[in-house]
Amino acid sequence: MTKESAVKFAVIGCGHIGKRHAEMIWQNQESELVAVCDIRPREELGLDPKYKDIPIYSGLSELLNAKLDVDVISIATPNGLHAEQALACLNGGYHVVVEKPIGLKKTDAEKIIFTALHKNKHVFAVMQNRYSPPSEWIKELVDSGKLGRINMVQINCYWNRDERYYKPGNWHGDKNLDGGTLFTQFSHFIDIMYWLFGDVENIKGRMVDFNHHDSTDFEDSGILSFDFTDGGMGVLNFSTSCWGTNFESSLTVLGEKGTIKIGGQYMNEVEYCHVQDYEMPTLKASNPPNDYGPYKGSAANHVYIVQNVIDVLKGRATITTNALEGLKVVDIIERMYKAVNE
């Protein structure tokens, strides 16, 4: 690939997230949207009219058999399909961008990593919250050692997901396609936790289904405690049972030399910073959250994901979230569920 050539993308899945991938690819001057893929017919997809000349394939096999001139395939389908489709794309000779989570089992994520190495292809795990200014700031602060020893970490994720989200016939709420609340709603924040503080052990907790007995196959709320392998202890409180709208996603860190809290509905605001011999800098504004009709999700930072893919393939950068980090998020969530169910 020459530095002057466009990176060519295809997108699998034309739901809210897939449309966002397509739009970010369309807007970037160094990328080209070559094709999209969805099992629904074009007239049901609600695609922007500007995509009228972009071919639509009705299945992944049809797309792969077309042997298109494509560098990267972005996977934005239901969670339970990610690993199988990533493996198919890698074996087809393409780099892949995989929406979170990269799989619902650690063993599936391991297969992705093995195949990517064997095929000499990149796997980009989508964890766009790392690009939020508060996330970039706290990463630098933690890595600098200015907080000293990390003693306690608390993550609170309190969102709303009701009948407007869990609609009959939709993949949301299906155990095999969704995976559970930690996979679909809150894996971004578990990724931030792992990115900042490393792996966890000694997981204990409890999960309950308060409001979703008729709409999901799994829990909607939980309390989890754990130790960090590098020292300190943590707790994750989560729920999708907030009435009406999302409430907060927050991270509080008690260090030896300071206390900080990132809060807001989407962990997008620095609410408190008191650190020894440290002056809080002015951060750039965070992007707004993704807007999916009555719902909002994590920060709308997919523009940075697409740019990172381009930069990596053109030799200008390293992957922001690689497949091994994507695997660790799956591994931690899998162990959290196991600890509760044992």
Mind explaining what this structure looks like?
With 342 residues, this protein is of the alpha/beta class. The protein folds into 2 domains: 7-125, NAD(P)-binding Rossmann-like Domain (Rossmann fold); 129-297, Dihydrodipicolinate Reductase, domain 2, CATH 3.30.360. 29% of the residues lie in helices and 26% in strands. The protein is built from 9 helices and 15 strands. The chain has helices spanning 16-27, 60-65, 82-91, 106-119, 133-144, 181-184, 187-197, 302-313, 323-341, and strands spanning 7-12, 31-37, 56-57, 72-75, 95-98, 123-125, 150-158, 200-208, 221-228, 233-239, 248-255, 258-263, 269-275, 289-292, 295-299. A 7-stranded mixed sheet has the order 8-9-10-7-11-12-13, with helices on one face. The chain has a 6-stranded parallel sheet with strand order 3-2-1-4-5-6, with helices on both faces. Strands 14-15 form a two-stranded antiparallel ribbon. Strand 12 (258-263) and strand 13 (269-275) form a beta hairpin. The protein is globular. The model has no long low-confidence stretch (mean pLDDT 94).
Describe the structure concisely.
This protein has helices at residues 16-27, 60-65, 82-91, 106-119, 133-144, 181-184, 187-197, 302-313, 323-341; strands at residues 7-12, 31-37, 56-57, 72-75, 95-98, 123-125, 150-158, 200-208, 221-228, 233-239, 248-255, 258-263, 269-275, 289-292, 295-299. It has 342 residues and is α/β, with parallel strands linked by helices. The radius of gyration is 20 Å and the shape is globular.
